[in-house]
């Protein structure tokens, strides 16, 4: 919590410094951003990303080995995937409803004549599904292909569980590697406030107050939908399905949310997110490693909310009415695209391009929302990892292995499955 407090202070300071430079010394911002803000943020992001592959491999291998039973693993996987698909559909419905009521695209005059945007082509869904099996697991690690890495790690863990004592030494090595990685995470997080300051100062300073205020209604719709989804959907799931107090859940998960906000990367936040869920939310390591690693790859509730709001905003900016059939198409396309583009860089914008194309809206409209997307990305990343943690709590409770919160509110060691 002390670290979270320091990161929040750094974020506030970064907002103030970034806006001040943008408003009063714009000529100074460029050099300061180039030689101070961006390097601070990049160094911290690279340190966090450096641990993602070893964290996922070790955690999922150990988690799968801990679960052992293939039927149980399949059951946990089914619950996890079902949770992500349902919450993604609910997320985009919330965003569409809020955008249709508040009409952000009708709030001002937007120049749609001279804008352009070249959308990347998303791979076919079948290619993505077939691509889950790596032909070269080392290459998958080097390229950071998360779906392939998860598959290979789970296969290694399954082999360890089946061979038992024959590979006990391998399990011990992985457990020692896990201890080492957790120490490195703790060490690197000491630099988080500096990285958070650089990232937010760069983001706010580059956008400026004018750009933010011009898109204020659109940002308000996205932020409002993100807040509703977090409190109502995730809070409700934790309360009704996870049998835990939502206030306890959010209070204990704040450290990971703050890191996610500052980095705007679910993958970079994954080590901290898993550590927080295991130590503070009492989620067993085996379920946390599987559920949260998969969620960092395919759970895009925050992105789905952005898509829903952006689709309505772009349609209103172009003066196009969306029928009920078009809205249903948006929901279906966004849910399927959340899996189909899971392993593609820049998946959020690719998904938005797919959704716009599916309902006949101009893809060039993405250029209207690009200006503030970096700031909104920070918030929706925090929402995404919160959904991953909520899923881990719900799945753990359904399996009867979720640890009980301590009376004094200080988490004890998480029990193993």
Automatic annotation (TrEMBL):
Gene Ontology terms: biological process:
dicarboxylic acid transport
Question: Which keywords does the record carry?
Answer: Cell membrane, Membrane, Symport, Transmembrane, Transmembrane helix, Transport
Q: Name one GO cellular component term.
A: plasma membrane
User: Is Transferase there in the keyword field?
Assistant: no
Q: How does it sit in the membrane?
A: Multi-pass membrane protein
Q: Name one GO molecular function term.
A: symporter activity
Quote the PANTHER family the UniProt record gives.
Answer: PROTON/GLUTAMATE-ASPARTATE SYMPORTER, PROTON_GLUTAMATE-ASPARTATE SYMPORTER
Name of the protein described by the UniProt record: Na+/H+-dicarboxylate symporter
Provenance organism: Bhargavaea ginsengi
């Amino acid at each position: 919590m002390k670290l979270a407090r320091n990161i929040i202070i750094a974020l506030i300071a970064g907002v103030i410094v970034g806006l001040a430079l943008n408003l009063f010394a714009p000529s100074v911002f460029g050099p300061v951003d180039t030689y101070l803000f961006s390097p601070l943020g990049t160094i911290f992001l690279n340190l966090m990303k450096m641990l993602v592959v070893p964290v996922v491999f070790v955690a999922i291998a150990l988690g799968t080995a801990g679960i052992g039973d293939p039927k149980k693993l399949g059951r946990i996987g089914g619950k996890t995937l079902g949770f992500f698909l349902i919450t993604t559909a609910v997320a985009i419905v919330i965003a569409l409803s809020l955008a249709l009521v508040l009409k952000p695209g009708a709030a001002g005059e937007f120049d749609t004549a001279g804008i352009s945007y070249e959308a990347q082509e998303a791979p076919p869904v079948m290619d993505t599904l077939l691509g889950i099996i790596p032909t070269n697991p080392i290459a998958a690690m080097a390229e950071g292909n998360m779906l392939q890495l998860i598959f290979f790690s789970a296969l290694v863990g399954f082999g360890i569980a089946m061979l038992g004592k024959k590979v006990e030494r391998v399990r011990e090595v992985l457990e020692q590697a896990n201890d080492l990685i957790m120490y490195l995470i703790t060490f690197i997080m000491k630099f988080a406030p500096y990285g958070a300051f650089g990232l937010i100062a760069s983001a706010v300073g580059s956008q400026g107050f004018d750009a933010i205020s011009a898109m204020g209604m659109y940002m308000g719709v996205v932020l409002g939908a993100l807040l509703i989804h977090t409190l109502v959907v995730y809070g409700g799931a934790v309360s009704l399905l996870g049998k835990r107090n939502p206030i306890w859940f959010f209070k204990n998960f704040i450290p990971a949310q703050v890191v996610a906000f500052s980095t705007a990367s679910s993958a970079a936040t994954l080590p901290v997110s898993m550590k927080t869920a295991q130590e503070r939310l009492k989620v067993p390591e085996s379920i946390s490693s599987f559920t949260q690693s998969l969620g960092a790859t395919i759970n895009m509730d925050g992105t789905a909310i952005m898509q829903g709001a952006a689709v309505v905003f772009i349609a209103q900016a172009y003066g196009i009415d969306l029928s009920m059939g078009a809205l249903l198409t948006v929901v279906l396309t966004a849910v399927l695209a959340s899996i189909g583009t899971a392993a593609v860089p820049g998946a959020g914008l690719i998904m938005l391009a797919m959704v716009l194309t599916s309902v006949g809206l101009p893809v060039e409209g993405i250029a209207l929302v690009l200006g503030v997307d970096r700031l909104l990305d920070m918030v929706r990343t925090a929402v995404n990892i919160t959904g991953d943690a909520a899923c881990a709590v719900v799945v753990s409770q359904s399996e009867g292995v979720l640890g009980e919160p301590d009376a004094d509110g200080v988490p004890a060691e998480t029990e193993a499955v």
